Amino acid sequence: MPKPRDPANTDDERADPLNPAEDTPSELEDTTHAEFLAIYADASENLRFAKNQQWRAVLYFSAGAAIATAYGEWTHWKDPTLAQLLLVMVWIFSLASAGIILSLQWWQSAEARKIDYVTSKWSSFSFAARKRKSKLVSDLQRYGMMIAMVLFLELATIAVTRIFLLNI
Description:
Strand content: under 5%
Structural class: mainly alpha
Order of helices and strands: HHHH
Number of helices: 4
């Protein structure tokens, strides 16, 4: 419970939400609190899964593009029809991988909002701990990584296309 304000105090003290003077417990029922803990754990696991899948999409595309290019080099580009098919497949998988990365990013955003809602109902100390990390910095980091992943995919696709077009 917050401390009552002392009317005699003229310093116009303002409560610091990132450093509360004392812990105000949540008003949640025990069963509701347990449900919120389960939602928090599930959302956290979903975030880790989505991030892992984003990196896997980049890895799998990179491996596929490298294998397609290596195959062309290994066969000395003898079959231009196959080379064109492989190039089309590289572009399709590049665009699909970028779409997957964007989709997973939107999912992560929804899970983060879920976590923010659940933790806003917890004690003042828990809320203060969660607010220690800037939402702006978190968003810049998350979207910066997403942009870097998509740029990598598309620049790698352009590089592979250039290799293919010079050889077929």
